[in-house]
Amino acid sequence: MAASVEHVEAASTVTEMDKTEAPETIRDPETSDSEPAGQEQDPDPDEDEDEDEDEDGGEPPGPKIRDTPQDIRLEAIANTVALHPSRDLLVCGDVDGDVYAFSYSCTEGENREVWSSGHHMKSCRQVRFSADGLKLYSVSRDKAVHLLDVERGQLVTRIRGAHGAPIYSLLLVDENILATGDDGGTLKVWDMRKGTAIMDLKHHEDYISDIAVDQAKRILLTTSGDGTMGVFNIKRRRFELLSEYQSSDLTSVALMKRGKKVVCGSSEGTIYIFNWNGFGATSDRFAVKAESVDCIAPITDNIMCTASMDGISGELRAINLLPNRVIGCIGQHVGEPIEELAKSWDSRFLVSCGHDQLIKFWDISSLPNTTVNEYRKRKKKDGRMKSLTKKAHGDNDFFSGLVEETEKKKEEEEEEEEEDDSDSDSGSD
Q1: How much is the pLDDT for 96?
Q2: HEC string for the chain
């Protein structure tokens, strides 16, 4: 059955009443009941609360400036988050099918909901901004592709029945071309000028978890629950090959090292590394001490951030590629898995969303300047990763400042010892 393209009149409004298109709202069965909280900002204590010291008639204190924006609490679990390419605006989609836009700020209390859209009938799986930041695309378990106007949150175009199975992944190739993957392993490439699919291929045996494209916009890479990476040529509109099967689901894909390396996360906690044009078999693999590597966000050509399940919590790591090293811990969603990561337009913040119904902000401004030595550092006795942010090991650690100072001293001592060791080793050659 062909997908139907519907162009929505600009005068239409986007409200929760639009959900009357369906007899009922169907929740994603993977989710639990949500808390009625209503887009309030979480009192995220990454800094100590300032007390009013001028109660005796002095001037009231000005607005508090934080290291990161406050957490944003949603009414339901967020599956996806995307950040605007040129300003402090984010969009998220939740399991109820709602899409929200928020402006964010480091000034306390200044996070604001800008608009919301309730056009999806089922869980919103992915949202993505266009390169100019004027358009927003979303896909859902209801098998529809939506195009919205970013400024007003109005639905512009809807492609009903875009896939025969629920849509899982979305990638914008350029201003007119987008790619979608579904739960059944089908990849479609769309020309949005016509609202039609120019590629419709099924070579995966399970869901397509993620999609990436090279800088030339010629080759699409897909990862799948069947344990393979797929290679598709957009220019020639054809399938190229599948990689060898891995032992677990491939959950995410990203290009690193100026496009010379491809990294794939997996459900067993291993990062698989491919050479560009060597897609058939892995060139290397790196086992992260985690139950899974669910998503990857490149920060520089060498450094990526990953979201993993560690026991009962979702944990954010910074990882260097070649040499393969875990640099340290960025943060965590305590007791809940993380669904997606996104980097802010100025590379100052990493944003994560999880099953705790929170959107969290992490300061990664110093991460691009991190250097990784070739030699391996000694493991810490307590097994804890190095903290890369103030909130890395929990928001409510009263002694976090003292711990950071102690850790720095220990690391300096360890580095001095390691330098002595390396000097003695080189002298013996």
Answers
A1: 97
A2: CCCEEEECCCCCCCCHHHHHHCCCCCCCCCCCCCCCCCCCECCCCCCCCCCCCCCCCCCCCCCCECCCCCCEECCCCEEEEEECCCCCEEEEEECCCCEEEEECCCECCCCEEEEEECCCCCCEEEEEECCCCCEEEEEECCCCEEEEECCCCCEEEEEECCCCCCEEEEEECCCCEEEEEECCCEEEEEECCCCEEEEEEECCCCCEEEEEECCCCCEEEEEECCCCEEEEECCCCEEEEECCCCCCCEEEEEEEHHHCEEEEEECCCEEEEEECCECCCCCEEEECCCCCCCEEEECCCCEEEEEEEECCEEEEEEEECCCCEEEEEEEEECCCCEEEEEECCCCCEEEEEECCCEEEEEECCCHHHCCCCCCCCCCCCCCCCCECCCCCCCCCCCCHHHHHHHHHHHHHHHHHHHHHHHHHHHHHC
pTM: 0.81
* pLDDT tens per residue across span 50-89: 444 444 556 677 889 999 999 999 999 999 999 999 999 9
Contact 187, 179 (CB under 8 A): yes
Residue 311: predicted pLDDT: 83
The Cα–Cα gap between 271 and 305 comes to 12
| Two structure tokens written together for 291 | 């139950």
Q: Please state, in angstroms and rounded to a whole number, the distance separating the CA atoms of residues 366 and 386.
A: 14
Per the DSSP assignment, residues forming a β-bridge with 157 are 7, 147
